[in-house]
Amino acid sequence: MHRLLFSFLMILGVCEAFVLPSPTKEMKVFRAATVDEETKSAAAISSLTSEVSTVFDVEAVQKVLPHRYPFALVDKVVEYEAGKRAVGIKCVTFNEPQFTGHFPDRPIMPGVLQVEALAQLAGVVCLQMEGADPGSVFFFAGVDGVKWKRPVVPGDTLVMEVEILTWKAKFGIAKASGRAYVDGNLAIEVKEMTFALAK
What pTM was estimated for this model as a whole? Predict the structure, then answer.
């Protein structure tokens, strides 16, 4: 009954927020726009990324990387400089299996998966360089200087950027740096990742 009353008051613009119990019995505050506030349509919100073009869609990424569900962590690449750098997107969804245990009442993308997503994006660049073949396997050989700045949760869009620091084709060794953002805020940065091409 109280929910119905609060909903009705919100529709009338009398009430700005109301409280609903969540399944964990914690109280969460939900905010609705008041009559005076300007709201945006789905088309207007979607158009915010209209100038971002896709360089490699998920099918193209899968032609380069050997990773598959549930460990394919690059959904698309939106900027690419051959042999140098890439910007890629990982859409974080609640459907991913790690969220059943990390954590059941507060799902957070594990930090090691954020590092792995950056490594896979670096793989998109490295596996198209001289001395490597698309679909080859790179192994992690090291990671240094990792800093997490904020949690990454379901519903976030992780915008990742990697830069190839060195590539030794003769030995199949690559070094890269990376960082990722959510809503323009730095979520993770990695000073250096080292990879070894499987021979």
Answer: 0.82
Long-range contacts of 176-180 (CB under 8 A, 24+ apart): 176/118, 176/119, 176/122, 176/125, 176/126, 178/118, 178/119, 178/121, 178/122, 179/118, 180/90, 180/114, 180/117, 180/118, 180/152
Could you tell me which residue, 197 or 193, shows the higher pLDDT? 193
* Residue 92 reports pLDDT greater than 90: yes
Output the pLDDT for position 16.
43
Q: Does the annotation mark 102 as catalytic?
A: yes
Catalytic, out of 102, 136, 148, 165 = 102
> How far is it, in rounded angstroms, from Cα 198 to Cα 172?
8
